[in-house]
Design goal:
With 116 residues, this protein is an alpha+beta fold. The protein contains three helices and five strands, in the order ββββααβα. Strands 1, 2, 3, 4 and 5 form a five-stranded mixed β-sheet that branches.
Length: 116
C-alpha cells in the first residue's frame, strides 16, 4: 500500500512561497512509508504567513511518542522561518500516551492556537 500526504489549499487566499519539501518519516529519505510534507504559504492580502506540516506517523509513535524517529525526522524538515506561524496537520498515531503539546515542545513550536 502507498501512503500519501498532500496539502490542498485555496490559491485565491494563499501563495505557496517555494517548493514543498516531502520526506518519508520511516526512512528520512524520499522513499519509504509514513510521508510528510512541509510548505510555506504567504497570504494573498492580509493575514498570517504559515509554515504548514502535514504528516502520517507510523504506529511506533504509540510506543516512542514525540521522541521517536518519525518525530525527529519531521523536526529536521521544519524550517522555522522568522515571521511564519506554524500549523501541524497530521495523524500522529500517538493515542493517549503522547499529547499534542509533547510534539509541539519537541519541534520547537510555540504553544497556542489561532485561526488565520
Amino acid at each position: 500500500a502507498i501512503d500519501l500526504t498532500t496539502l490542498v489549499y485555496n490559491s485565491q487566499r494563499w501563495k505557496l512561497t517555494d517548493n514543498a519539501t516531502g520526506v518519508c518519516l520511516s526512512t528520512g529519505g524520499a522513499n519509504g512509508s509514513n510521508p510528510a510534507v512541509v510548505a510555506r504559504f504567504d497570504p494573498v492580502g492580509n493575514g498570517s504567513k504559515l509554515e504548514v506540516a502535514g504528516a502520517h506517523f507510523s504506529t511506533t509513535t504509540a510506543i516512542l511518542g514525540s521522541w521517536g524517529f518519525d518525530s525527529s525526522t519531521l523536526k529536521k524538515s521544519l524550517q522555522h522561518h522568522p515571521g511564519y506561524e506554524k500549523v501541524f496537520l497530521g495523524d500522529t498515531n500517538a493515542f493517549s500516551h503522547t499529547k499534542n503539546v509533547d510534539f509541539a515542545i519537541a519541534w520547537g513550536f510555540d504553544l497556542g492556537a489561532s485561526t488565520p
